[in-house]
Amino acid sequence: MTSLASSVSKNVDGFLQFINKSPTAFHCVDLVKKTLTSSGFKELRENEQWNIEPMGKYFVIKNGSCIAAFAVGGKYQNGNGFALTATHTDSPHLRVKPVSKRDACDYLQVNVECYGGGIWHTWFDRDLTLAGRVFYRKSTDKICQHLVHIKRPILRVPTIAIHLKRDTNEKLEINKQDHLQAVLSLKTEEELNKSCKKEEPCEGNKVSTDESKKHHSQLLELLAEECQCAAGDIINFDLILADTQPSCVGGLRNEFIYSGRLDNQMSAYCAIQGLIHSLDTLAEDTFIRGALLYDNEEIGSESAQGAMSEFTQHTLRRMTRDEYERSISNSFLVSADMAHAIHPNYSSLHDREHQPSLVNGGVVVKTNCNNRYATTAFTATVVKEIARISNVPVQEFCMRNDMPCGTTVGPIISSRLGMYTVDVGAPQLSMHSIREMTSTQTLEYYLEFFKGFYKNFKRVYDSIDH
């Protein structure tokens, strides 16, 4: 096997290019779609008939933020089952509210709400921008959507000076309604643009009365420029605040990756790359290999595009041609979400025997007897054997007994489908911060693990008495 270290630069660079172009779940799915298409995958649509064949490669998208990809083994027969991975595309962020127009003390502000369990103090004093999707009217009978990612800082959430709040370093208190609203501009700038403030019908670049009441006219003009449409044609949008600082390699020996959204776009990227790089053995496989990238995991997965929905069952049923129940009994799912590496300044927060490392520690198997993770002794055995064959080290993670445990899509899918499931992850620091951290070696092991899972699952699965 080629040394992992020999391909570090290429693999890390590929991931950095991906995540720097992926500020939102919508961008993530769009990039995955392009990657799959270039590798010969065909898009299926939910409202059309499907014709699934051996050696076929397919994907289906939900809401532009969830994607499921499948590669059918050359020796697949109905009922043989699936080898699946499941990750998610979303991360905690600040999202623009439906009515974002806000001003105070001669500042124009953008009204935002908190998505997921972010570490919100890390969003202060960052150079922020906007990214997401915009719906606009192209003609009287055509409405288009466009992905936007403004490539310059336009927003900032400023902290309060220590002179005005002397106990800031001892007691950080954030009121999420009052303290996280972002500054867009000075109010005096708005007065210079009188034409955009007139409440007139949509015409040319003028803003419609309804939308100009909801959002600052300058903001709508900026979005219109990105979409190459008139500001008055904008109907609605999903927009989030995003950091403008690009993801990069750092550390004394370039051993770290500094980036936002490692949780969980790193898992999503590695799962798709693993699926694609396993295709050279697809002809001999009797299973369907698949990668499920859900949205809304950070807020409970209860959406049409989340792991709690019927999307998974509907998709798998259609892939199996009425052999769904038999297929599920022969299937296996790897739920992949990032894991907590041991923190050098807070090591006491880990169980002493469960301290995942960023230094050559490898993939983390996550266990919780209260089923916050779906791992069992059997499913962990499957994964550990696959990792051994793939030359990837394995670490164990279990929370302290006196601390609550987070969860993933694993228990959701496992319970809804009755499918064997294991929870794994790649260790990282600063999870849910606007700027997270992992190691380049961790990325290498993670990529190798996913490829090894797709290539070796059937052999390992059949070798275990179950």
What would your notes on this structure say?
This protein is of the alpha/beta class and 466 residues long. The chain folds into 2 domains: 4-91 and 260-463, Zn peptidases (Aminopeptidase, 3-Layer(aba) Sandwich); 93-243, Aminopeptidase i, Domain 2. It is built from 12 helices and 20 strands. The chain has helices at 8-20, 25-38, 187-191, 194-197, 209-214, 217-227, 262-276, 311-320, 324-329, 377-389, 410-417, 440-463; strands at 42-44, 57-62, 66-72, 82-88, 93-104, 107-115, 128-139, 142-149, 182-186, 234-243, 248-250, 256-259, 288-294, 332-336, 339-340, 363-366, 394-397, 420-425, 427-428, 436-439. The strands form 5 sheets. It has a 9-stranded mixed β-sheet with strand order 1-2-3-13-4-14-18-16-17, sandwiched between helices. The protein has a 3-stranded antiparallel β-sheet with strand order 5-6-9. The chain has a 3-stranded antiparallel β-sheet with strand order 8-7-10. The two termini are 30 Å apart.
